[in-house]
Specification:
The chain has 463 residues and is of the alpha+beta class. The chain is 31% helix and 24% strand. It has an eight-stranded mixed sheet with strand order 6-10-11-16-15-14-13-12. A five-stranded mixed beta barrel has the order 1-2-3-5-4. A three-stranded antiparallel sheet has the order 7-9-8, with no helix packed on it. The chain is elongated, with a radius of gyration of 27 Å. The protein starts with 5 loop residues before the first helix and ends in a 20-residue tail after the last helix. The structure holds 4-amino-1,4-dioxobutan-2-aminium adenosine-5'-monophosphate and magnesium ion (MG).
């Protein structure tokens, strides 16, 4: 049953090549003495046209079973195609049907389905052109990310999914427990007695691997994580998932400038690599999803990102000749409308905003000399808003302790994190990239639910 993937034949196959392919039927067109059946095995946007001659044994019966969605193996010979849509086609000599798909009930028929409808059939939607292209690009992004870091000597660190801390301090964690929720053990004070829980204390799904990545960076200098993260924020938007993938590089002996340089080089590399590996899929997105996909990619690759401070960003927003729903004032967090105004309308390319007010950022960010701002950086992208969030970390023990106390954190819970500042501390920095937001940015897909195979969002965890 092994055979080369279809894309190999579509690209390099020559008339006369005897081949075998395994695939699913997309469409069928019956003519007088033969039928055209387009099949696809997921390796490319373009399918392979199979010519089924009426001289084939059991022609009528075979043809009846070759409906959209059926799985087949086809053996035959490649021939030059007379049609203008393809260079070559496969003249079938034998066809084996593995599984039929009843056209009365198979939900994917030859028409445009809405993305909302396709989400309800996430077990089948990967067989459509758009979702197929999305998941190939997603795969190419993953490969490009590993390639970028591996060629620069970064160690891929596997950080835990189950944690006890709250890295971002936003209280948006999912609890992990093996206690019987109908019969919770109680302490004398009537609180839940977590000493009887699996880990003997409250545990959660991680919101970020950063703190553990910092541990690893203090041994391997440059590391990155790439894995699932979880946030129980009740945000039903086109850019939020409860389970999403994050890429988090962490670099020892690095400041905020080095952090920004890495982030910019990183995004440029991923775009470049995806354009090279998935040219057909990218052309498809440009034609069908968003006509600015290719020009955006060109901009990312060839233009320098804008760099401004938060204070400058506030001044620009105050000068904007439009009104915002959320107020603009120094000290307030930037909302998505502000971020998009800066990236989309004003700079028309990604903008790196640095040095945010202390009060709106996490405890681990390095305090600037002005004591009002921290060495943070967010990268804002057109159409997306915040795609990367990062910072230089506070490496001074006394300053870190002071900031943690101010945020009412229990220093004992973070003993190991503080140890990193006690033993061989160095300036270090890193960032987190929302992987699905990156895939959205590259493909132009408007809803984040359509760039991850099985989205988890409020009230939705099917498949
Ligand atoms: O800005 P965030 O919260 O930063 C951190 O978690 C840091 N620990 C990262 C670091 O410095 N190592 O999240 C990082 C990125 C955001 O910029 C956004 O792209 C993405 O993660 N993100 C989400 N993506 C999808 N759904 C959500 N609910 C997301 N929350 C954050
Ligand atoms: Mg952030």
């Amino acid at each position: 049953m092994t055979s080369r993937r279809m894309i190999e034949w579509l690209r390099h196959g020559q008339p006369g090549d005897a081949i075998a392919i395994n695939a699913w039927v997309r469409t069928k067109r019956e003519l007088k003495d033969f039928a055209f059946v387009e099949v696809n095995d997921g390796s490319s946007l373009q399918g392979l046209q199979v010519v089924v001659p009426s001289t084939l044994p059991d022609y009528e019966a075979v043809l009846r079973s070759l409906t959209t969605g059926a799985s087949v193996s086809v053996e035959g010979v490649l021939v030059a195609s007379q049609g203008k849509n393809q260079r070559i086609e496969l003249k079938a000599e034998s066809i084996q049907i593995w599984g039929t798909a009843d056209p009365e009930t198979y939900p994917l028929q030859k028409k445009r389905h809405s993305f909302e409808f396709l989400r309800t059939i996430a077990h089948l939607r990967s067989r459509t052109n758009t979702l197929g292209a999305v998941f190939r690009v997603r795969n190419a992004c993953s490969a490009a990310i590993h390639e970028f870091f591996q060629t620069r000597g970064f160690l891929w660190a596997h950080t835990p999914i189950i944690t006890t801390g709250d890295c971002e301090g936003a209280g948006e964690q999912f609890s992990v427990t093996s206690l019987n929720l109908n019969q919770l053990p109680k302490t004398p004070e009537q609180a839940v007695d977590f000493s009887q829980d699996f880990f003997g204390r409250p545990t959660y799904l991680t919101v970020s691997g950063q703190l553990e990545a910092e541990i690893m960076a203090m041994a391997f200098s440059n590391v990155y994580t790439f894995g699932p993260t979880f946030r129980a924020e009740n945000s039903n938007t086109s850019r939020h998932l409860a389970e999403f993938w994050m890429v988090e590089p962490e670099m020892a002996f690095c400041d905020l400038g080095g952090d920004m340089d890495l982030a910019e080089a990183f995004l440029k590399h991923v775009f470049q690599s995806v354009l090279e590996k998935c040219p057909e899929d990218m052309a498809f997105f440009n034609e069908r999803i968003d006509p600015s996909v290719l020009s955006t990619a060109e901009t990312i690759i060839n233009q320098e990102f804008a760099r401004i401070t938060y204070t400058e960003a506030i001044a620009l927003l105050e000068k904007a000749e439009r009104t915002f729903e959320y107020p603009v004032e120094w000290g307030l967090d930037l909302q998505s409308e502000h971020e998009r105004y800066l990236a989309e309308d004003l700079f028309k390319r990604p903008v790196i905003v640095t040095d945010y007010p202390t009060g709106i950022k996490a405890f681990y960010m390095r305090l600037n000399d002005d004591e009002r701002t921290v060495a943070a950086m967010d990268i804002l992208a057109p159409n997306i808003g915040e795609i990367i969030g990062g910072s230089q970390r506070e490496e001074r023990l006394d300053v870190l302790e002071r900031r943690m106390l101010a945020q009412h954190l229990n220093l004992e819970d973070y003993g190991w994190y503080l140890d990193l500042r006690r033993y061989g501390t160095v300036p270090h920095a890193g960032f987190g990239l929302g992987f699905e937001r990156l895939v959205q940015f590259i493909t132009g897909m408007t809803n984040i639910r359509d760039v991850i195979p099985f989205p988890r969002t409020p009230l939705s965890a099917e498949f």
